[in-house]
Amino acid sequence: MSTQHNSRVTVLGLGAMGTALVEAFLAGGHATTVWNRTPGKADGVVARGAVVAETVAEAVAASPLVVVCLWDDAVVRDVLHPVADALAGRVVVNLTNGTPAQAREMAAWAAEHGVEYVDGGIMAIPPGIGTEHAFVLYSGAEAAFEAHREVLERLGAAKYLGADAGLAALFDLALLSGMYGTFAGLWHSLAMVRTENVSAAEFVPMLGPWMQAMIGGNLDRLAHQLDTGDYGHEVVSNLAMQAAAFPNIVQASLDQGIRPDLMAPIQRLMDQAVAAGHGAEDVAVVVDLLKN
Ligand code: FVH
Fold it and tell me: From the CB of 102, is ligand 1 less than 6 Å away?
């Protein structure tokens, strides 16, 4: 397969993210064919050099590499299943958000139809695609991934996690969990101070550095504690102390007229861990309590 042939790419889906992916491929000099349910959304990328296909089958036939970025897993199946024959022998890289189970099902379907399947998770927002801030997780067919790594690197740093197609989705959703959990804390803290007419602009210069110090400064110790199971390692602020003070957050929120919904589950976990005898250990021990 010539380099030129290898560098052609088809993108299915021209939402905010699909469009950003196409722009990055075009910027990298790749001949890019696009398909979208609503064809008018292709106008911008066509003006920059993309070729629009009228059907999914036509789009798939145009390139050895087919990148999929659609609404959800159900839409991906609706779009890909009817063109299984056209996909045979090609590489599908599915960057649509989904679960590990959905990724493994897609991989099994692809294997049945002679399609090389790589699942992925985009760790960036559309304006970050193609910049040093973006990275994309991949798992599934390794040789197929490696054959197209150079093209995929146009989107951001490519991190291949292994042959199990479900791994990229697992890491993606785990990283998003970290993001949403952090957002939840930020939302709650802003809701609290706003009850006293403190503007967000006044508060965030404290919030940012505080979060960075508390999260960034503790991750290595957290990793050591989890990987060794030694939650007594380098304990600075023990769990019992934190669990004793935490109800004040919930009570003060109620007093200020703020729902404690985002904080209450944290208190329950801490209380469980203390009751189980972990009071002298680090708060990281609650990770083990999350196992079902
Ligand atoms: N945007 C982001 O910040 C995140 C970053 C991380 C990855 N996510 C995931 O990427 C997938 C697509 O997200 P998006 O931002 O491009 O989403 P939209 O702009 O809403 O575009 C949705 C595309 O899906 C097409 N579509 C929806 N329903 C159908 C359908 N029934 N049949 C065919 N296509 C469908 C839609 O087409 P149209 O509405 O333009 O005709 C768009 O192409 C997603 O999994 C994120 O979680 C983005």
Answer: no
How many CA atoms, within 13 angstroms, populate the side-chain half-sphere of residue 160? Answer: 17
pLDDT tens-digit map of 237-267: 999 999 999 999 999 999 999 999 999 999 9
Classified as helix, coil or strand, 5 is helix
Asked if 258 and 188 count as a contact pair (C-beta separation under 8 A), the reply is yes
- For β-strands 9-12 and 65-68, DSSP reports them as parallel
Which residues in the chain belong to E strands, given as ranges? Answer: 9-12, 32-35, 51-52, 65-68, 91-94, 116-123, 135-140, 157-160
What residue has token string 């785990």? Answer: 174
Note the pLDDT tens digit of each residue in 269-287. Answer: 999 999 999 999 999 999 9
pTM: 0.95
Alpha carbons 129 and 221: distance in angstroms, whole number: 31
75 Cβ inside 6 Å of ligand 1: yes
| DSSP sequence for 221-247 | HHHHHHHHT-TTTT-SS-HHHHHHHHH
Nearest to residue 169, comparing CAs of 80, 102, 108, 124? 102
Tokens of 45: 């990328």
Residue of minimum CA distance from atom 34 in ligand 1: 37
CA of 15 to the centre of ligand 1 (A): 5
Q: Is the CB of 36 under 6 A from ligand 1?
A: yes
Asked whether 253 lines ligand 1 (CB < 6 A), one says: no
Which residue in 262, 270, 266, 269 sits closest to 243, CA to CA?
270
Q: Which residues contact 98 (CB under 8 A, 6 or more apart)?
A: 72, 73, 76, 106, 119, 169
Say whether 137 sits in a helix, a strand or coil: strand
